[in-house]
Amino acid sequence: MENVFLTIFDIFNFGLLIFLWWFTLKNYNALPQTIPIYFDFKGKADNFGSKKYSFLMPVILTVLYLFLVFAVRHPESVNYPIGITEKNEDSQFLIMKIFMRWLLILVMGIFLNIQDYMFRYSVDESAKPRVPLSTAILSLFASLIVVFIFVGIFK
Predict the structure, then answer these.
(1) Using H for helix, E for strand and C for coil, what is the string for 17-66?
(2) Cβ neighbourhood burial of 53 (10 Å; 0-12, 13-18, 19+)
């Protein structure tokens, strides 16, 4: 059952990565030559660049995806907040495998939201992000708190 659950996570994460590439390629030709590439905390663009920058998010996310896939496949190479012993090894590795996959979903969601906002803002300066960045960052922090609780429980 554990492997089925983790495989579903993996398929979903890979699907999100493919979706980001598809979304970028689909909308690339419709973008103006200059697009917003940096936003302030209020959501206003304050730096612009060539539309080639639209590929920055998918490239960064692909590198991050490959790094996290490596980390999940080699749990012994990851740094843990507690010492790993033979007694807690299985539970700590499982917590890490689940958390890394969950973290990847959150990060991919943030990247997709930013890419969508960047594309919509390119044609309409009154566009708003679909998910506020503060909500996304709070979800990351909440996830970290939850994983440290589980790590503490199963140490």
Answers:
(1) HHHHHHHHHHHHCCCCCEEEEEECCCCCEEEEEEHHHHHHHHHHHHHHHH
(2) middle
The whole-angstrom separation of Cα 58 and Cα 23 is 10
Q: Which residue has the tokens 């700590």?
A: 92
Rg of the chain over all Cα atoms, to the nearest angstrom: 18
- 150 contacts: CB under 8 Å, gap ≥ 6: 95
Query: What is the pLDDT tens value at each position of the chain, 155 positions in all?
Result: 668 888 898 899 999 999 999 999 999 999 999 999 888 877 788 888 899 999 999 999 999 999 888 888 877 777 666 676 778 778 778 888 888 888 888 899 999 998 999 999 998 888 888 888 788 888 888 887 887 777 667 66
Asked if residue 113 lies in contact with residue 129, where contact means CB atoms within 8 angstroms, the answer is yes
CA–CA separation, 154 and 91 (whole Å): 7
CA distance 111 to 46: 18
